[in-house]
Each structure stands twice: as structure tokens, then as C-alpha cells.
Fold this sequence. Notes:
The structure holds two protein chains of two kinds. Chain A is of the alpha+beta class. Chain A is 39% helix and 25% strand. The longest helix of chain A has 45 residues, at 512-556. The interface between A and B is medium-sized, with 25 and 18 residues.
Amino acid sequence: MPRIELSMSGRPKSRRGVGIDQGTTNSHVAYMKESGPQVIRDEQGNALVPSIVYYDTAEQRLLVGEEAGERLITEPRKAIYSVKRFMGKGSADVQEDIRLVPFQIAAGSEHVIRFQMGDRQFTPPEISAFVLRELKERASQFFGEEVTQAVITVPAYFNDAQRQATKDAGHLAGLDVLRIVNEPTAASLAYGIDRREEALIAVYDLGGGTFDISLLRLREGIFEVLATNGDTHLGGDDIDNRLIALVLDEIKTQKGRDLSRDHKAFQAIRKAVIAVKHDLSESESATVAINLAESGVAYQREISRDEFERLIADLIEQTLGPCKQALKDADLDAAQVDEVVMVGGSTRIPLVRRRVEQLFKRQPHTELNPDEVVALGAAIQADILAGGRRDLLLLDVTPLSLGIETMGGVVAKIINRNSTIPASASEMFTTWVDKQTGIDVHVLQGEREMADDCRSLARFTLKGIPPQPAGLPRIEVKFLIDANGILTVSARDVRSGQQQSIEVKPSYGLSDEQIEKMLMDSMEFAEEDLRKRQLVEARTEADTVLRASERALAERGELVSAEERERIRQAIAELQTAIGGEDHRLIRARIKQLDEVAHHLAELIMDSAVLGALKDRKASEVAEG
Amino acid sequence: MAEAITNRTTPSACPHCGAKSEDVHVCSACGKILPLAADGDYFSFFGLPRKLRLDESALETTFYALSRQLHPDYFMNASEAERQASVERASRLNDAHRTLRDRTARAGYLLGLAGYKEAEKKAPPDLLEEVFELNMQIEELKAAKQMSDEDEVQEARAALEEALDGLKDKLKDIDARLFASFADWDALVDRGAEEREGQPVLDRMSELLSHRSYIRNLVRDIKEEL
């Protein structure tokens, strides 16, 4: 039936929350349906969005996902992939990665990476935001409402800076980030949602760029993480790099050509070996065939699964150490684990499944699509946060110990790893010299003894301490790790009871001012997208309104006068003309006009429904409308 | 570190409705979460007396029940004040649970409440000679490893492994004595005599804890070297 209440401002804002898994390689968005969590697909039925962003320097235009992926080979220097590996890092952290990718980082990237794209620079949160915006748009189109609330997942082993960078990306994409959730924990939700009996679960998550292991106890709907461990720099990308190195090496020895600096050749090889890697999960052998017309190199060779496994065996072994450490931290034997859940595309590799099976002495679960399960879990968490259900609760932990630097560069741990979050610790600080008015504090994350070996999170200064003899002031600093795993710091002068002013300088990442500026900058890309989207949406809405009005006229037109019917027909004709044009504002205006003239008829139809003049079936339609 | 030892759980008026709540976490009148008072300790947060022997499975049950009441997940659409109260209460809950579920952490926390400084790692007197010997053996093993002298390495390793077993026995002994003193403390609490007569028991626990952490460190160092 006609639903002729419309807003002029485009899509209505949705109160719905979605779950987003932004992977190193591919990203997904999912929502909670009554029947269970569901991944949102595009019109072609694709569930994934490749996490690739292409920036056309000449036209200052952005492409995201599949379209950007097509440019990887033709214009490799302008397409950014695996951005997740750069989140929350500085140039010193990514020396090795940057050698392996064709895109470049700009000078001044010590605290935040800046990708150089022609005359413009983009930070990882900005690139990540472009992908998030694509997912947001997909969800909004699906619901016909502006989706803004999202749960975004991160590797469990992500540190504070990496989490903050992810949250910043969500903010830049125009999302209200309800929660940052750990990927393996989200996956356990998707697997355990209907489970009521108590169980110990291990989630082994080997994705495109990161590895996590999490051990959870499921009891009475509570998903309690007991321990987590991992490596934020180990995944499918590293496996690809082994194969690429093999091919480059053989081309060099067989053909005498060094293609390691040839970016187009590199991307072509990369594409070919990824296909071979996928094949080898199904077949015992596969063929790498590369024909580089521009370089005049043709290369072909067969690779058996055995050879592939030998090539990557040590990478897979590297995942077992964290598994054993997590078991030790949780005070568990591998044999006590009831179920093992496999997450991430790299767990399709038979060697990975074998090694995990050997460690836990049980066959791992692979029922759910390992690429989609994290997004599904995130959708469940979004539903919990929206108040949809109170029977489930995630109790997650902080993956790394939090400490402060003390005398001699030694780290004093104040919140140990695997502490359930939110978690807090209070420390008392005082002055060393008379009349000292400020105290410097250095906060770190990591397990090592010395500050130099841990990850610096932030430095801050306790300021405005009243001048007093040394040792007399007592400033209590409260460190709080929230449910996102992100640290906040507050300070209080114990004697006066007053809040102490505090100025935190994050060691890595963006300041609030930088984020605000980026938000402004991103508008230029948003404008063109917006125009296109508004037109599509206005037309869709016009279609719906037209169909409803025509039906109302045909079925119940006699409720109004002939004159009124004529006015409605006139408005219908005008809207039809507007749809043929490109002006979404005109379409909206014509929709409004039709809405106004048909309003009376809609009211009468509604009234007659309420009075029971309509048959039951129609009455229910009216009620739904 | 020293907090007031009085166990203050007397509720003040609920800031949401003004009623005197019977529950410490959530207002019994209006059902809203209460802000966290600064003077509560971990025992009172769980509604427990300051006793050291506690029913660990009951602690887990309470932890789950309170998590369901206080977790920030359930306050996303609440007022700013309630959201803040939830984060503070949930973090206190987790901090308290982490401390109380572990016997030695629990004892250390009680000592902190009574004004004891964090236990310094101190070698038990009857172990001083052994410790000296052990450090020599560790050095010998290091030297043998450096020289790649396989026989020496084997010999030093065997000696250290034997010493390690001895230390583990020692730890068990300390734990047994520590837990025995838990019973002594709890008996005092039951009689309401802990303020007057508690000091010797607390002193004993403090010493045992410092010996314990010393030996554990030593065990860790040896394991690293083996």
C-alpha cells in the first residue's frame, strides 16, 4: 500500500548496526536477520569487497574494491592493498613490507605512514576509510536507509595504536563505531550462538596478513576469552611472498632477467601465484603460467603440494608458538580444548589444517565460510549492543601487557596481558625535586623488560602541580583499558581531589586535529559519489511511490472525487517525466507533489482499513504499510 | 597503597531517583546503575567478608552474574552518566575478579589493604647458601654453552634440573604454610579479632609471599637457561 511519508533529505538514518570485517585482503559487512547473521551482498551477489584502493592522480578520482583491483596490474603504483599491515605504524616498522609492495611512502612517516600517490598523500586510516565507506554504502543501499552504526573487527593481537587507527578509519568513513571487537572472538560468537552447554573453544585465525589464536570458555551464553596470542605480521601475504620469490628467482636464473623492480611484472606474478596457492588447497599440483608481454618473459612451471608445503612449512610452524603460549597462559592442555574453529582464508591450506589438528588432537571446524565468519560474529555483537539481545555476552581480554617506564628504562607492568577488559590500574606519582610542577610518564605495551623492547604507546606530562617540596605531591593516574581494548588515562591530585591536567602525545597515529582535517578533505570524494547515489535513490523511491499510487488509484480510486483523481494522474505523469532526467532534486520535488495530492486518498484507504471495510488480507497490508 | 581498612558498603542516595538503594551496584528502587564509590575494596565489591579462604566456584558464578548486570555492552543507549558508571563498575569487577580468584594475589591484596608494601623478593634464610650455589651453577652452564663444551653443558644442566626439583618442593612447602595461615586469619575475622590480633598472621603471610616470589623468579631464571 502507499507509503507516502517521505523525507526530502535523501535516505532516512538507520538505527540498525552492522558488523564489518575489514580484512587485509578482503572485507565484508553483515547484519542480524531474525534467522541469524547474514553477509550483505551486492547486486551481482558478491559478498566481499577487495581491500584495495586506487587513486587516479590525473583525474583525482578514487576506485575501491574490485575496480581498484583491476588497476593493480596496469597501474601498480597507484593501487594500495594490504593497508591493514600499515595501520598504527611508523616508517621504521614497515621497512620490509614497503620493499615488497609497489606503492611508496612519503618522507615524514615516522609516526604515521603516508602513502605517496602522485601529488597527494594518504594515511592508512584514510585508505581504510575508503573501503569502509564502500561497505557502509553497500549496507545502506541494501536497507534503503543510511547505515552509520557499526562494529568493526581487528586482529586480537592488535596493539593500542592499531586499534585506535581502526577506530579513526571508521570515524573518517562517517561511521559511529559502536565497538572494536577481536576477530577470533567475533568468530566464536558466530559458531557458538546457539550453543548452551559449556565448552572450551580454540579459535585459530590465519588471515591475509595476521595470525591470532584465542581460547574461550563458553558458559551460559557468556563467551569468556581466557587467553589470546598471535602475530600481527603473519598471514597469506607472507605465503604469497614465498611463491613470488621462488618465481622471481627462477626467472632470473633461467632467463637472466631480474624482474624484482618491475612493478607490473611483480603484480602479474603475484596474481598468478595467488591463483596457484588457491588451486593447491584442492589439487595435488598446479601450474604457474606467466606471460609478460611487456617484459618479453614467458615462464611456466608445475608446483606440487609437497613442494609448496616445504616452501611454507616454517611460516605455519610460526603459528604454533603463540598457540602453545596461549594454552600456557590459560593454564590448559591442548587436550582439554573441546572444539577448534578455523577462521581466515589461509586456513583452507591443507598443511595448516593438519598442523592444527596435530596440536589439538582433534579435527577443526570448517563448516562456516572462513572468510565470512568474522563479519557474521560482528553482526551478532552489533545486535547485542543495539539492545537486541541480552542472553549473550563477550568478555574479551587485552592481548598485551600495559606498563610504564621507570628508572633505568625498565618497564613496570600495571595491567597484565590476558586481563579481562575493561580493566584498570591506578599508579601514584610524585616529584623528584623541590618545586617541580610537571611529571613525565611514558606508557608502553609489550612483554619485554626494557622500554626499548616494548611498543611505545604515548608520553604524557602531568602539568600544573603546585610547587611543593620533592616527594610531597601525590598524583594518582588511572589507566583504563576500555571494552575496545583502547587505553584512556586520567589523573587526580590526591591532596586537592582535583582532576589533574594531562596532555597525552600518542607515539603513533593521528591527532584529533589531523582527523578533522582529513574529514574535510574526504568531502571532495564524497560529493561525486553522493550525487550519483542521490539520483539512484530518488529514482528507486519514485518507482515505489509511482507503483503504490497507481495501484491505489486503480483499486480504491472511487473513494475520492473525479477531480482529485485527475490531479493525482497529473502528478504521476510529472513524476514519470522527472525520472527520465538527471536531477534528483526535481525527482524529489515531484515525489513530494504526488505525495501531497495523493495524501487524502491514502488517508481514506487507511481509515477504511481501520474500520474493517477491507478484507483481512488487505487490512494486514495496510497495517504493515 | 594503604586504603581505609573499614569495609564501607553503606549506600548513599541514588543520583537517579534519590532513594537509598539496598543493592550496591544497581539501584534497588529505579534499577539504574550506581556510580562507583572511591572507597570500596575488592571484597566488598563481591559482597564478601575479608576472608582468604573463599569458594572459588561461587566467585565465578557471582562474576558472571555481575558481568551480566554491569557490562558496558548493555549501556550503549543509556545516559552518559550510566555509561560512565558501567565502564567503571565493569573494570572494577574485572580487576577484583582477577585478584580474588588467585590465592596469592588475594593474600597480597589483603596485605595491601592493611598497609603493607608490595612484598619485596627476599630469599628465605635457610636457602641463602643454596641460592649462592645455584647462581654459580647457572654461570657454569652459561660458560659451558659459550665454549660449546657438550659434556660440561650436560653436567651443569643435570645439576640445575635437580636443584629445580628441590625448589619446586620448597614452593609447595611455602604454599602449604601460606594456606595454613589463611585459616588462622579467617578464624580471627570470624571472632572479629583481626584488627587487634591480626598483625602476626599478616607479618607471616607477608614474609611467605616475599619468599615465594623470590623462588619463583629463581625458577624462571633457571628454566630460561635450561
